[in-house]
Amino acid sequence: MMEKELRTLMLGALDGNAESYRYFLQQASSLLRAYFRRRLTAAPDEVEDLLQETLLAIHAQRHTYRRSEPLTPWLYAVARYKMIDCLRRRSRYEALNDPLDDEAEWLAATDEEAYESKKDLGRMLEVLPVHQRLPIQYTKLDGMSVAEAAAMTGMSVSAIKVGVHRGMKALAKIWKEQA
């Protein structure tokens, strides 16, 4: 479902339209379920539990949505925070069952390398024009489908595909020149 339609449903819901809110929750559920499935290696039950927690948070925090702002970034932010909470709970549980090893140095190096790589990628992406940068950001880094990226940007599906293809070629060229 496109940003505009979801936003219209949410605005109707905020104005007290129960049918609009019911339909909004159905559409948001589909969108968020796909979001979680792409990002988590979890059992379907765990994805559904996380989805329910997220829908409850959306319900409880719906008053924080600013009517003048796009809706999907707000939705994905709520979902992201809930997913992070889930991962933290999972890692705490797994940590209780892991033997204590001397991995602190290895983990610190990995975190530092990941941070530096992310900074490098960010600098390279900044060089790209918006019609290439956003499709790459949404589809390759944020894990959205091509259709979702098209809805977020207002671009066509084929423009997203072309933007990703040309942007990836440009990034490869930039990386090769820097190496």
Automatic annotation (TrEMBL):
Q: Where is the RNA polymerase sigma factor 70 region 4 type domain?
A: 120-171
Q: Which UniProt key words apply to this protein? A: DNA-binding, Sigma factor, Transcription, Transcription regulation
UniProt cross-references to InterPro entries, sorted A to Z: RNA_pol_sigma-70-like, RNA_pol_sigma-70_dom, RNA_pol_sigma70_r2, RNA_pol_sigma70_r4_t2, RNA_pol_sigma_r2, RNA_pol_sigma_r3/r4-like, WH-like_DNA-bd_sf
**Where is each RNA polymerase sigma-70 region domain found?**
30-92
Q: Name one GO molecular function term.
A: sigma factor activity
Q: Which residues cross the membrane?
A: none
Kindly list the biological process annotations in GO that this record carries: DNA-templated transcription initiation
Family membership noted in the UniProt record: Belongs to the sigma-70 factor family. ECF subfamily.
Q: What is this protein called?
A: RNA polymerase sigma-70 factor, ECF subfamily
